[in-house]
Design goal:
This protein has 219 residues and is α/β, with parallel strands linked by helices. It folds into two domains: 145 residues, HAD superfamily/HAD-like (Rossmann fold), CATH 3.40.50; 68 residues, DNA polymerase, domain 1 (Orthogonal Bundle), CATH 1.10.150. The chain has twelve helices and six strands. The protein has a six-stranded parallel beta sheet with strand order 3-2-1-4-5-6, with helices on both faces.
């Protein structure tokens, strides 16, 4: 199939922020009195809205976190990202090899996406087409964000393709009627496929999956 546009999730697809962000979250929740490992944080909260993640923690703790806890978490994440954040391996080369309209659509705030894409030098590939669930007011796994992204690019949903790595994101794309490729380097391919994704394990594979030759294949 010939696609007209590619919609990328951000965390875990473009930037390697899932591990870093959930490490910060786990450390701060542990300091608040509820022991949580980074691995468990990734397992429970990958791709989720921060407020929903904290609500789950509060329910498990049986008490409220400080009112400004989410703000503290975001500030600490931003500090860690400035020094440690890297792009997903091979994604820059993949973006260069895909001559289609591209945008980013994430459950995260637009400011966070702008920061992480700037740090990793990926913002230049998207010409400001960065769409947040906070703008739409509806979060994945609902389809609204992906439908909004497609409409903003002027492309019918069925002529787009979504690149995702989380259960919530794959569910959102499927619900929107958009084909979805599941990046499964740190996810279970079987689980993503069961939700409706076609999976791949390396960003070096992505151009060929979309019908374009990769930089590696031209060398």
């Amino acid at each position: 199939m010939k696609y007209q546009a590619v919609i990328f999730d951000c965390d875990g697809v473009l930037v390697d922020s899932e591990t870093l962000g959930n490490r910060v979250l786990a450390e701060m929740i542990t300091e608040a009195g509820f022991p949580l490992s980074p691995e468990d944080a990734v397992q429970q909260f990958k791709g989720g809205k921060l407020a929903d993640c904290l609500a789950v923690v509060e329910a498990q703790m049986g008490q409220k976190l400080p009112a400004d806890f989410a703000t503290q978490v975001r500030a600490q994440m931003a500090e860690v990202f400035q020094t440690e954040l890297q792009p997903i391996l091979g994604v820059r080369e993949a973006l260069e090899a895909i001559p289609l309209q591209k945008c980013v659509a994430s459950n995260g705030p637009e400011e966070k996406m702008a920061l992480t894409l700037k740090i990793t030098d990926l913002a230049r590939f998207f010409d400001g087409r960065i769409y947040s669930a906070y703008t739409v007011g509806v979060w994945k796994p609902e389809p609204d964000l992906y439908l909004y992204a497609a409409s903003q690019m002027g492309v019918p949903p069925e002529d787009c393709v979504v690149i995702e790595d989380s259960h919530l994101g794959v569910q959102a794309a499927v619900a929107a009627g958009i084909p979805v490729l599941g990046y499964a380097d740190h996810s279970s391919p079987a689980e993503l496929e069961a939700l409706g994704a076609r999976t791949f394990r390396s960003m070096h594979e992505l151009p060929a999956l979309l019908g374009f030759s990769s930089p590696l294949s031209r060398n």
